[in-house]
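Input C-alpha cells:
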C-alpha cells in the first residue's frame, strides 16, 4: 500500500505543476479502524471503518489552493489536483507564505510504531481482549452493585506525503486503545472511575490490569467529602499531569498561537518560565510513542526538540508556515487530522524527564494537601489561568491519604504552576501524546464546597 500511495502522490504533484502550480504537495492515507463497545458487562456493538483519500495543496505565487477526495482512485486524484490549482489561481495571496518544505535526504529511523499482530487481529480475538478486561472489573467489584462499560479501538494504516521540492515519504502505523469504566452504587454513595491503555503494539495492552484498576479506582472514590479551602501542595498523578501539560502547556508552545498573541508564553522564548526540576522535550523519535514518526505532516524530518531545560523556554513548536514566518527552522511539528485538512501544529510526544519517587512517596512527605488523579479542565490559553475541577482526587493529611474529595477546584496560573514544580517522580506513564511522571506543585489555591 505504501508504494501505491507514493506512486499516486507523485502523479498528483506532477499533474498539478503541469497545470500551472509553482509548487504542489499531495498527502494520502489509507486506514482501517475496528471498534467494540461493552455496556452493562456485555458487548453492545462492533463496527469497522475503512477510509482512504488524498489531499492536494497547490501554490501559485503566494496563493494556496487545497482540495481533497475520499478515494485513492487515480482519476479522482488527478481531478483533485486540477481543482486545487484552480483554487490557488483565484485565492488571495498570503504575504506570510514563503514555500513548502524541501528535503533531499534520508529520514530518521523510528522503532515500534507498527505491529503486524494489531493489523491481523480478528474480531473474535478483539472481543476476547475486551471481555477479559470486563471480567477483571467484575471480579474486583466483588459483591458491590457495579455497572461496567468498556471500549476497544484497533487501528492500522499507511500514509504518504510527496511534494515538488523533493519530499517523499511513507509511514505504516498501528495503535490499540482499551478502556474500562466502572460505576458503583451503595446506599449513601456512588462513584465512577476508569482506566485505559494506549499502545502501538498488542503486547502493550494488559486487559486484566485495565479492568481491575478501573474497579479499584472506583472503590477508592467512594465516600467523597469536601475539604477546607486554602493554599496547599498539590500532587498531580501522571494522568492529571498529562492532561494539564497536554492541553495547558502544549497549546501554549504552538507557534501559531504565539504569533497570533493567543498564548500566555508569547514573550517568553529564551526566558526562565519553570522550575529547574522540570525538563520537557518534544520527541517525535520516541521508541513506540503514540505520535512517533520519521517525518511530520509536511514531510519535514522528525526530531527531538528541547522545550524546557534548566527552567528556560528553549523553543516553540513549528510547521513550515510558522517557521518561515518567524525566520527559523521548522521543528517538524506539522500535524494533520487526516487528508481532509491542511497542516496545523501539534506536539508529537511531549516527554517530561523523570526524577525520583512515586506519588505514594510524595504523599508521605505532605502534611496537608491534595492528590489529583484526574482533571479534564484546561486553562485559558491567553492568560494561563487554570481552574481545574478535581474529578478524581484525595485529601492528604499527616503524610497519608484520608478520603476522596468532591466539589474541589485547583486554582493557579500556568506560569505559576510551571515555576512551582517542586518534585518530579519516576512513575512515568504514557497518556496519548504526553509521557509524564507524577509532579508535585509547591502550592495552589484549593476551594471546595
Amino acid at each position: 500500500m505504501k508504494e501505491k500511495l507514493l506512486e499516486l502522490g507523485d502523479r498528483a504533484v506532477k499533474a498539478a505543476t503541469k497545470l500551472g502550480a509553482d509548487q504542489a504537495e499531495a498527502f494520502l492515507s489509507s486506514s482501517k479502524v475496528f471498534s467494540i463497545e461493552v455496556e452493562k458487562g456485555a458487548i453492545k456493538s462492533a463496527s469497522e471503518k475503512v477510509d482512504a483519500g488524498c489531499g492536494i495543496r497547490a501554490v501559485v505565487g503566494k496563493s494556496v489552493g487545497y482540495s481533497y477526495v475520499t478515494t485513492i482512485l487515480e482519476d479522482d486524484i488527478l481531478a483533485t489536483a486540477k481543482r486545487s490549482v484552480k483554487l490557488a489561481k483565484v485565492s488571495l495571496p498570503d504575504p506570510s507564505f514563503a514555500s513548502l518544505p524541501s528535503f533531499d535526504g534520508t529520514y530518521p529511523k523510528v522503532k515500534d510504531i507498527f505491529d503486524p499482530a494489531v493489523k491481523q487481529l480478528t474480531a473474535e480475538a478483539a472481543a476476547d481482549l475486551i471481555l477479559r478486561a470486563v471480567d477483571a472489573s467484575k471480579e474486583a467489584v466483588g459483591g458491590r452493585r457495579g455497572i461496567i462499560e468498556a471500549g476497544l479501538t484497533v487501528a492500522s494504516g499507511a500514509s504518504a506525503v510527496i511534494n515538488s521540492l523533493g519530499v517523499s515519504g511513507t509511514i505504516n502505523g498501528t495503535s490499540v486503545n482499551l478502556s474500562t469504566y466502572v460505576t458503583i452504587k451503595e446506599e449513601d454513595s456512588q462513584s465512577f472511575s476508569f482506566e485505559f491503555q494506549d499502545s502501538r503494539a498488542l503486547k502493550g495492552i494488559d486487559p486484566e490490569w485495565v479492568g481491575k484498576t478501573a474497579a479499584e479506582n472506583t472503590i477508592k472514590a467512594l465516600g467523597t467529602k469536601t475539604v477546607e479551602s486554602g493554599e496547599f501542595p498539590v500532587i498531580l498523578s501522571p494522568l492529571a499531569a498529562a492532561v494539564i501539560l497536554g492541553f495547558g502547556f502544549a497549546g501554549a508552545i504552538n507557534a501559531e498561537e504565539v504569533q497570533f498573541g493567543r498564548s500566555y508564553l508569547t514573550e517568553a522564548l529564551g526566558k526562565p518560565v519553570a522550575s529547574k526540576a522540570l525538563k520537557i522535550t518534544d520527541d517525535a523519535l520516541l521508541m513506540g510513542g503514540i505520535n512517533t514518526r520519521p517525518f511530520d505532516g509536511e514531510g519535514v524530518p522528525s526530531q527531538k526538540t528541547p522545550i524546557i531545560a534548566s527552567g528556560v523556554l528553549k523553543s516553540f513548536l513549528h510547521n513550515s508556515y510558522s517557521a518561515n514566518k518567524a525566520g527559523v527552522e521548522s521543528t517538524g511539528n506539522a500535524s494533520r487530522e487526516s487528508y481532509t485538512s491542511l497542516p496545523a501544529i501539534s506536539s508529537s510526544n511531549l516527554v517530561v524527564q523523570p526524577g525520583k519517587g512515586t506519588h505514594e512517596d510524595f504523599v508521605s512527605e505532605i502534611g496537608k494537601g491534595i492528590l489529583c488523579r484526574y482533571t479534564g479542565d484546561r486553562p485559558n490559553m491567553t492568560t494561563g489561568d487554570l481552574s481545574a475541577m478535581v474529578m478524581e482526587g484525595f485529601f492528604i493529611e499527616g503524610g497519608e491519604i484520608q478520603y476522596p474529595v468532591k466539589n474541589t477546584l485547583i486554582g493557579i496560573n500556568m506560569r505559576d504552576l510551571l515555576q512551582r514544580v517542586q518534585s518530579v517522580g519516576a512513575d512515568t506513564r504514557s497518556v496519548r501524546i504526553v509521557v509524564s511522571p507524577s509532579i508535585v506543585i509547591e502550592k495552589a489555591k484549593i476551594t471546595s464546597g
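The chain has two domains: 116-220, 230-448. The radius of gyration is 24 Å.
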